[in-house]
Amino acid sequence: MKASQNLINLSADGKKLLACLLNTDPNKRVSASEALRHQWFDDLNIEIKSRGKQYITPQLLDRLRNFKTESHLSKEVIRLLVMVYEDEPQVSHLKDAFFYLDILDNGVINREELLKLYSDLGQTPSEVEIDEIIGSLELRTAGVITYTEFVTATVDSSFYCSDKCLEEAFVRFDIDQDGSICEKDITDCFARFGVQITHDEVLKMIKEFDLNKNGKISKAEFFKIMKGNFDTPRSPSSNRAFN
């Protein structure tokens, strides 16, 4: 009864959109991205983009530039935490920033949109640098920046350096729960997300964190590398290595 009442109260634009979504002909049915560009969402899109614009700062651009210095495993740790704590204010704010930058409303930021971002803030990076930035953010999708990649690259270090967040990340990677992260743990953790990585990639990740050279990563090493490299907020002067 309540659902029927909601349909009755739906605006004319809302009913048109619903009809497009329920079209039985798949060739005429609108896609998700097309639906989000429907005029019924105009007011909501304006509100989100207005919120997102306030988070576009020179500091955000610096983080995008500096992300290429991060080590592979560190990038994955941050990406995991972004997904786990997606409701945290820092992540929510960057979500709004992403939607502001996603001019085409297709769920990704392309090189033209990224160039416009820098241009709007009075910066003129070369096309080569733009391609390097996109390349450094390509954790899963080539040639564009996805929402998760964007937030992973731009979230401040204060978000992921807390003991709570690092404990969560360590537990997620320590698949066999033996108190350390080994080659199989990393392989299995990636597999849970449907990602296959090579033996050489795994060994490189372990080497980045394995301070005592025993072939695995202890919790102490994990915390030391993440906190040691990121004790201060990310800035143009940070010199750290991290999909």
Q: Calculate the mean pLDDT score and round it.
A: 81
At CATH level 3, the topology of the largest domain is: Recoverin, domain 1
Strand order of the largest sheet: 1-2
Number of helices: 15
> In the CATH hierarchy, what is the architecture of the largest domain at level 2?
Orthogonal Bundle
Determine and state the CATH class of the largest domain.
Mainly Alpha
β-strand amount: under 5%
Radius of gyration: 21 Å
In helices, the fraction of residues equals 55-70%
Find the count of extended strands (DSSP E, 2+ residues).
4
Largest sheet: 2 strands, antiparallel
Cα(first) to Cα(last) distance is 47 Å
Q: Which structural class best describes the helix and strand composition?
A: mainly alpha
Overall shape: it is globular
- Low-confidence runs (pLDDT<50, min 5 residues)? 1-5, 230-243
CATH homologous superfamily of the largest domain?
EF-hand
Give the count of structural domains: 3
Give the SSE string.
HHHHHHHEHHEHHHEHHEH
Question: What do these coordinates show?
Answer:
This protein is mainly alpha-helical and about 240 residues long. The protein has three domains: about 10-45, no CATH class; about 60-155, Recoverin, domain 1; about 160-230, Recoverin, domain 1 (Orthogonal Bundle). Helix content is about 60%, strand content about 5%. It is built from 15 helices and four strands. The longest helix is centred in the first third of the chain and has 13 residues, at about 70-85. The radius of gyration is 21 Å and the shape is globular. The termini are far apart.
